[in-house]
Amino acid sequence: MRDVQNEPDLRRIPLRKVGVTGLRYPIDVLDKANGMQTTTGTADLFVNLPRHFKGTHMSRFVEIFHAYRKDLSMKRFLAMLEEVRRRLDAERAFASVKFPFFIEKTAPVSGQPGLMCYDCGYEGEVFLRDPENGGGISRVFTVSVEVPVTTVCPCSKAISRHGAHNQRGRVRVRVRNTGFFWIEDIISFVESCASCGLYSVLKRKDEKFVTEHAYENPRFAEDLVREVYAGLKNAVSLSPPLCEKPFLWFSVEAENEESIHRHNAYAYAEYTSP
Amino acid sequence: MRDVQNEPDLRRIPLRKVGVTGLRYPIDVLDKANGMQTTTGTADLFVNLPRHFKGTHMSRFVEIFHAYRKDLSMKRFLAMLEEVRRRLDAERAFASVKFPFFIEKTAPVSGQPGLMCYDCGYEGEVFLRDPENGGGISRVFTVSVEVPVTTVCPCSKAISRHGAHNQRGRVRVRVRNTGFFWIEDIISFVESCASCGLYSVLKRKDEKFVTEHAYENPRFAEDLVREVYAGLKNAVSLSPPLCEKPFLWFSVEAENEESIHRHNAYAYAEYTSP
Amino acid sequence: MRDVQNEPDLRRIPLRKVGVTGLRYPIDVLDKANGMQTTTGTADLFVNLPRHFKGTHMSRFVEIFHAYRKDLSMKRFLAMLEEVRRRLDAERAFASVKFPFFIEKTAPVSGQPGLMCYDCGYEGEVFLRDPENGGGISRVFTVSVEVPVTTVCPCSKAISRHGAHNQRGRVRVRVRNTGFFWIEDIISFVESCASCGLYSVLKRKDEKFVTEHAYENPRFAEDLVREVYAGLKNAVSLSPPLCEKPFLWFSVEAENEESIHRHNAYAYAEYTSP
Amino acid sequence: MRDVQNEPDLRRIPLRKVGVTGLRYPIDVLDKANGMQTTTGTADLFVNLPRHFKGTHMSRFVEIFHAYRKDLSMKRFLAMLEEVRRRLDAERAFASVKFPFFIEKTAPVSGQPGLMCYDCGYEGEVFLRDPENGGGISRVFTVSVEVPVTTVCPCSKAISRHGAHNQRGRVRVRVRNTGFFWIEDIISFVESCASCGLYSVLKRKDEKFVTEHAYENPRFAEDLVREVYAGLKNAVSLSPPLCEKPFLWFSVEAENEESIHRHNAYAYAEYTSP
Fold first, then answer.
1. Cα separations (Å) of A65 from A58, A71, A76, A78, A140?
2. pLDDT tens across B217-263, in order?
3. Would you say A66 and C200 are in contact if contact means Cβ atoms under 8 Å apart?
4. Helix, strand, coil abundance in chain A, percent, nearest 5
5. Contacts of A261 in chain D (CB under 8 A)
6. What residues correspond to the site May be catalytically important (chains A, B, C, D) (predicted)?
7. Cβ–Cβ of B5/C155 closer than 8 Å?
8. How far is CA D54 from the centre of its chain?
9. Which of A81, A123, A187, A260 could join A142 in a cystine, given CB atoms 3.0 to 4.6 angstroms apart?
């Protein structure tokens, strides 16, 4: 049977990425409280395609992801990528997987338990280093978390006789590290930087608490980004530390679904270790 | 050339709807301030398919919608539907079109102008009445508007020392009428029922105003639905009236993007004239 | 502490639905091959609100759903709804939960395994019957499945020298039953009605098979709906049967993402047992 | 009244972007056939925020965009950005606006007219150059177009007795240029690289034409990207040329909604002028 993908291509145009997108799969990820957590992921998987090949073999991406789905810790995610790179005979392999991540969180006064959902993701890249620079394999791994929070507007509070507009906001953090850290720790640190964290279950005494706590801690989107930025930069010296080794790179983004506008307020900062 | 769609079908199963969905088109709709407004719509167009036909002729839906796009007032929308019904040789024709609708709105204190966007829609159905009941053609026309608003939580305000959680909410109203009314009037009535309406441009003195106004007018999702319901039921006696003739049917839905939760609070009511 | 929600309301407007929407939770559902399957759901939970209450207690919905999440079979889903109704002191309770559902499926020739994802959902309603009609509790339970398939256009095949346009289509089925049935059986029956089912992993010999099989089984959206309709109507007499008792009600919808248009082709039919 | 945003910030963290997102507005853009076209846009507007300011003044972004909406050609878009930069007293300003763009396209045989919708966008950045490098202002302007097309799979065609799987695909092109070009020309060039372009209205003789044309021109996602890449690289020498000056940078992305899979096939390439 003809293998059209393997035939030579004469246009001499290398492709940076070829692969599959939107692959939905159940996956198991690390969970601080329970060891592992089963959730549902959406994956994109790619390799580079040298100029002389006409096409890639899409089925192999799925076969490999299928085999690794039962344990997608950071280490295994990179091993999966390395296997994609080898099996597809490429210099580079890329992957991302997005998944909802669930954490049990108790209400601040009543202690009522509920599960909170956070949209998280892994992104990775594995590539052969230039042989002139000693060769070998490089690995990049980035974790992203989106943390929904409350933000009370400092300006609205300062200028108004009573009340202050507040709203749901989303903080998206992406971090790159070579050491171990828990997603749960990043999330609870981000929540501590907001006017208040969110909860699934709040009884009336809890609602009183979160309303007052938020009003006493007003934050612009700009403030929120700066608070999270300052903490991530000093992640190893926080008490308790967020991770074993300093983050190599991170970005912080806050988007407030302004309750007085139809559009959102936005702030973004990025850090690269020197 | 074979006309497969026109061939007989032996399964004897009538289809309630066949047609096209997701047709994106620029359309012109009525605008109270400017006569007409050009916006962009997404249309679904259907007819019923009797049991003896194998398929419908999809291209005719698009041809007819194409011809009517330059004036999609209520009257023309129903005329378009009637032409769909006749050209497709069906007993019933259905259509819906969703579009963003823009209204200039000035800030409450500074008077600064800005455009607000509201997601609106038309739905229609045209059908032959049973000849035993005198025959003729029936027409149903429903307008929907989605109005983003601010809501301050009455419970949070009542139990907290200071502040009150508030958030962006969405009120969706669907109304059925045989007389004329302006979408703009429905929208501004809905905004008057909320803790406060939203604005595109707010200077600091406006922000003070909307913060205080909202705090003084707390509303649950339940309150919002009841306020809008009460007004729509008495639409002709409001001052100014919302429409010439009473609404035959309407529904009101409020969804608050709770600033203390990740999930939303929801309320819904429906009215049918006796 | 004031209980604002419990205060009387003087507007005398009953609300058909009040509750929470967009609650994301891990849930466990029945799985034919493995007993149970852990997936991630998005739930909406409502009760009716009589005219004399100002508001509902939103936290109770989440508390109850939290307790039931570990086993959301049909029976337990209705028990959960019944508890919602009682705890919220309402006449009616409604719920829907949507979730991706995963089934292992092997390629048709090579036998390579892969997981396929299907968007499924439960909807339920529990209500007190009118005491004049003997009282008691009524329960309605509806399952929905969305099955992605291939459809080859019969018209395109009939009129063209070679080839035929084909595309991904989505078939959405909703069924209401009082007896037991497997979601897996509905899904594989729907796939058998299409030009071909979809797969996660296809090697070249599989790709040859599915291409030829689809070309030999062209289907309009209209055909697909009629084939599924005919089968669901005779669900108990199919071999093997799809369910123990006939469906009380069902709807079938097919939407083809036409490869020659930007818009979709659509067909819909509905059945109610006499 | 206090101006909290203007107060000093002691955390010494500069923010790369602050501003507004999701601003929906009617806009007017250039149209080759009709001079201008009114459509609906969604805009994001940002500036950088130096470390010593606490916040930005969000209302100014909207005021400026409001003033420019009636003519968003490339030149005016950059002038708008330059005004944002100056009014917000920043070194950098960024903006993007996404909009559906409509082009009349006649069916290939019958000549029937219909409107096709393409998702397009502008992105821009204006910044002060380093005074050490001579100062002045730099401007970057990127146009993006998404072109839906048909792709027939070359492998499926080569190995199957008859037929070949095909599907809707999306080609996304982003180009950066300092000279003038028409979005319409990019779109029709991309369509010419696919197995076939899409149409809103196709009569039977047109359907025969597009089916056969597509079958005779099979394309992998990889092929499509390479064809478009080769053309954009030689944009000034095509006949007719796509633009006056060569593109400084571009990217090409193809995503096929595989009719035999639930996931998509993807290819991507990027070019920077030497």
1. 12, 11, 11, 11, 18
2. 999 999 999 999 999 999 999 988 999 999 999 999 999 999 999 99
3. yes
4. 30, 40, 30
5. 20, 58
6. 153
7. yes
8. 34
9. A123
